[in-house]
């Protein structure tokens, strides 16, 4: 008997007559933010901003026509010389760069180039207000996962209409067939005295630009 | 002297050799842990910090109890239909370009993983987020074939450098303080410099630097998983450092080892567990990094993905109608942080499967109660119930502990030679079965007991009974028993 058959046989034998019973799953939990948490869109965006800051990431609001300036200012503020970006990043986001070299990931950059870069700039698939999370799924303006992982700094541009209220809303909108990365703050470790310390193996700094359309 | 006496065991559990076989009983193993006051102080601080964070995080959502109810029901539903979900998971992973392997026990899982590492021609593997690989003893198996294993989480790295055993599920080096970690790094981590400051941020930065190149060059990664979504074939991994992301993104070959209890039926079920787990484990609203992948994605991440599904006793636990509820466990470690026993002994005495209250039920459920070590685990508890209060999937751990104590007694009843305790209980049953025998024994016993007492307390009982007074005093019985008093005054 193969191990597969053996394990499945053991499972069936262990369950005996209980096998196949479907206990009801009560789903009384909240799927959306309550009115107390957010009455309007503006409240959802405000909650997201507050929670991103709680996660110890930098967060700023910009108008739709200011993205290029804001990206350039953020990179300038971090003394960034070279960044890596997905090939399909909107051109306008990098239009104001001055003294920063942006390498597009096409053809795919090698790991040493990623490691030598000071940061990366991407968009996201959606963001979650309740938890202050940005989610990347490798779709438009996001690139492959290594881009936002190897460099020490990640600048993520979030359009206000990409922000959902809750985790259930986010799960419902995401496609599990795509590689997903939920990012809530910079890399952190609980490995030393079980206290949260920022800056382990992932990006040490996360910055979020919220674009109000 | 027996092996359990303090004089013959190493003063620190951390410098001792890997846990020998057979594993010592909980009380024996705990003795050396209890003697290490520094480790106890560190662990107490870590548990308290996490406990507070978790309590605050669980108090925030108004629907927390609804989420727990849903989590419990989803897991029960999964377990009662586990064979169907496992077959579905296998199909979905395979369709997405992954390869599924089945391992009935630890030896088979080791064979599968070492075979894959050999086939990849790797001399070094990076490892992340896997208590399961510890359960199957993978590091030793890889070391024997000449493969270097790099533990990549900061705490796992500390444990590996110090040749310790992990003391906590979430924070395996919780028994070490920053000064000790600084010393370790000074010896073994060139990136930290010769005399690193005992500063957590500097130490984390040194760990980052130390492993950076190794991540970028490693051909193979081995990880664990938090959830396996049957419907879509998706693996979900929560972590905070980014070592998990590195492992599942950079190397060409990714091997994930996961227990068959990690399955959830549908992707939508993640809406519950992505709320329960972060808040119950680190006390975050969301763990810094949640990664999920389904098979392989061309142009992004590994080219080969292998999923090893491990039984290794889980079906044995599943066969126990009361005990199977423990398989709901999502390994958050909240029960460790509230446990008065764990807080003092740390993780080592619980053995290699899982520490803390959940380990005290899972280990005997998965491995049986025949060995003295496993049989001792259900007794490693005061039954205070704090674990059940915090469990995000509502496992009634004290109930399962009591159930397992019953099984321990049952298994001993069948032995040809009764244990001393059993013999004593049988003697007591005979004595108490007859009023005259009982009264005579009471009179004699009272006289002897009063001879042994000093200042109203008995500090040490003779012979085998002495085990009972090792950790507690016995009040001396009164000069006259209730029955004697009744006879004297009322008749």
UniProtKB/TrEMBL annotation, chain A:
Instruction: Please state every residue range assigned to the domain named LUD.
Output: 113-211
- Write the protein's name: LUD domain-containing protein
Q: Which Pfam families match?
A: LUD_dom
Question: What PANTHER family does the annotation carry?
Answer: LACTATE UTILIZATION PROTEIN C
Supply the source organism for this entry: Actinomadura darangshiensis
